[in-house]
Amino acid sequence: MLPLMALSLQEAAPGRWSALAGLAFAVVLAMAPWFSAVAVLPQLRVVWRLTDAAASGLTLAVQLGFVLGAVLSAALNLADRVSPQRLILTGALIAAGANLGLLWAGGPTLAAGLRALTGAALALVYPPALKAMSAWFRTGRGTALGVMVGALTLGSALPHLVNGLGGANWRSVIFITSALAALGGLIASRVGDGPYRFPTAPFQPSQAWRALTSRGVGLATLGYLGHMWELYAMWAWFSAFFTGVLVNAGVADPGRGPALATFAVVGVGALGCGLGGLLGDRWGRTRLTTLAMGLSGACALALAGLAGAAPGVVLALSLMWGFWIIADSAQFSTIVSEIADPAYVGTALTAQLALGFTLTAGSIALVPALVRAGGWPLAFVVLAVGPLLGTVAMRRLARTPDAARIAGGRG
């Protein structure tokens, strides 16, 4: 009886909710530079006379930079050898500086390099933040990481809000998002270590490969890849899509409408993350991820059929898509934290994210080509393939022995 009582006391770690609030707020701020250039892309097209290829390059550069940073971090086991708070502070400050450099870039060539550096730096923010918060929660970990990914979602949406409220002053958007990132890193550095800290690991570059090729983590990663195929392509190109919707509806000057609509569609995902975390803890993570990907893929297919509908109809359906497209995201990371080698949880999380963001670069680059070939309906149909295949991987994971270690045995 006494061991059970002791475990119960341990599960309710004092200060875990204040730690979650502090770190989540820090991530909201630190991730603000991610979509800063995308949010002001219409202005940059004019100022720098960007071609379509150059504009796509600025969007892809962040994704590819994140991949490079994540691969190097995983290979060096940084997330398991260095304090998460120190990594987050370092990454946030570098991202803030690189993002601020856009003010003096003068054109797409230097800007692409700065965007890649921003992405690489943010690879030191996101995975360590997930690991740091896992150390504060055993029960309710899915909810906690759902809040963390919700923070990432809000951080990604912030530039669209700043742009929507600030009009065409792209320099203000860049300056504000840089300042927010630096502030986020400083706040994260003040969050203490959780009581369920993972052991410090020795340097073993092969651990990233070992984690991804184990059956349970491998299937969770396949599900995550299906989720990521759709997610960032939708986030990156929704503003362009909704601009077209407004123009086709006879709106001569969409103005701030696309930026504010994009903020709403991306930002509503923060609520989806919260609900997804609660359902993942209570229903089981494989069940929740299957539900979320099924609904997300269905929304994409519905939009493919209604792309020419009235803006209000399109926006309502898009908000539903934005809610479910991210609701499952944290659960893939939570699964890894539960079934991976405890000494290399940070490496496993970083490796999973590296693969996912590698895939997003492909889907982001593919969307413009699909739109040229068959319009937005074709793009949405192709994006829907990812979550539909991801559900297959999660259903298989639910039937493996590893399911007994996920969500307290709920799978």
From TrEMBL:
Pfam families attached to this UniProt entry: MFS_1 (PF07690)
GO molecular function: transmembrane transporter activity
Main location: membrane
InterPro entries: MFS, MFS_dom, MFS_Efflux_Transporters, MFS_trans_sf
PROSITE patterns linked: MFS
Transmembrane parts of this sequence: 20-41, 53-75, 87-106, 112-130, 142-162, 168-188, 232-252, 259-280, 300-327, 348-370, 376-394
Top-rank lineage group of the source organism: Bacteria
Compartment annotation: Cell membrane
Keyword Membrane (UniProt): yes
Membrane topology: Multi-pass membrane protein
GO cellular component, one term: plasma membrane
Annotated protein name in UniProt: Sugar phosphate permease
Sorted UniProt keywords: Cell membrane, Membrane, Transmembrane, Transmembrane helix
Boundaries of every Major facilitator superfamily (MFS) profile domain copy: 216-411
